[in-house]
Here is the input.
Amino acid sequence: VCDRLKVGVLTGHIALKDVPAQITEEKILKKLRLMKAALQRDFGIDAPKIAVLGLNPHCGDGGLLGDEEQKVILPAVKAANEEGILAFGPYSSDGFFSLDNYSKFDAVLAMYHDQGLIPFKALAFEDGVNYTAGLPIVRTSPDHGTAYDMAGRDMADPRSMKAAIYAAIDIFNKRADFDELVAGRMNIKMPDTEVRPRGGRIIE
Here is the structure.
């Protein structure tokens, strides 16, 4: 995540040859539900719009380059719409990022790791944050590795680390506000799942 782009991946650290078999309508729906909930609770976006990328070049080109878009991804998008999730696509990833289409959406769901992370890091490497949605705690980290080759040499760029800390604070506060709002609407007391400072918010 960063201020201008949020990317989720359907499949993570698996071999590229194993990706097609892991793309199912059920998994896409599950991830879209998770992304919608996280965008609302952790980022304060009431009705998030989520773009869904295709798997194949040019989204399969009408079936000539693959049929996952027509048989799996598009039905998942339609099923998500029926649940009230504002999902759109599938979009061809090359044109999607190069034409700045991502700025029209609140988040993007990529089908595999490099499809989403290469454009994200190209656009937001210095201030990008690795964030895990759906946890009872807030978890962020820099979007790059530990860079042991730079340790102790005064070479590392601290911007992503700072961004991760600030993002954690922002998400914590957004989550506290959301939970308070939900509790007020339902007239119930929300259980404390996190240790909160007095007043329920962190002040930078």
